[in-house]
Amino acid sequence: MNVTSNPSVVTELVVPDSPSQVTVELVEQPAQVRAPAARCADGNGTMTGLFFSDHVIDIARAKAMCGLCPLSVSCLEEALEREEPWGVWGGQLISGGRVVLNKRACGRPPKNPRPEIVIDELGPVTIVA
């Protein structure tokens, strides 16, 4: 078996000593590099309610999703450039085109402070005592 390799994209395989000589040309395609996809982009818009919610737990879930996304830095930069009016962008809550560090729950604050809750993508996980 004789294999010849060319620096171009065509590789030729010649099989001598066979009853009928066969020449097969294999075309090598250059490897395609996939761009990273945003974790919030499901293509159907089903996450919209999560990323544009007023509920503190939904906001924390959206931030947790963004925390693992490879595009979170560029997402936040572009949202600040566009002066997005609200929503979670790049792991940060934006309101009025600016980053809001702490979102309070609606209504009057409780007399006794609530325990801190750890939240991941799926919702509340544990309560820190």
End-to-end separation in angstroms reads 72 Å
* Average of per-residue pLDDT values: 77
Helix/strand order, N-terminal first: EEEHHHEEEEE
Strand content: 25-35%
Anisotropy-based shape: elongated
Radius of gyration: 27 Å
Number of strands: 8
Give the helix level as a range of percent: 10-25%
Q: Please give the largest β-sheet.
A: 3 strands, antiparallel
Continuous helix count: 3
Q: Strand sequence of the main sheet, in spatial order?
A: 1-2-3
Low-confidence stretches: 5-11
Structural category = alpha+beta
List keywords for this structure.
129 residues, alpha+beta, three-stranded antiparallel sheet, elongated
Explain the overall architecture.
- The chain has helices at residues 48-51, 56-67, 72-82; strands at residues 2-5, 10-15, 22-27, 86-89, 92-95, 98-100, 116-120, 123-128.
- The protein is elongated and about 90 Å long.
- Helix content is 21%, strand content 29%.
- Residues 5-11 have low confidence and may be disordered.
- The chain has a domain at 48-101 and 113-128.
- The strands form three sheets. Strands 1-2-3 form a three-stranded antiparallel beta sheet, with no helix packed on it. It has a three-stranded antiparallel beta sheet with strand order 4-5-6.
- It has 129 residues and is an alpha+beta fold.
- The protein has three helices and eight strands.
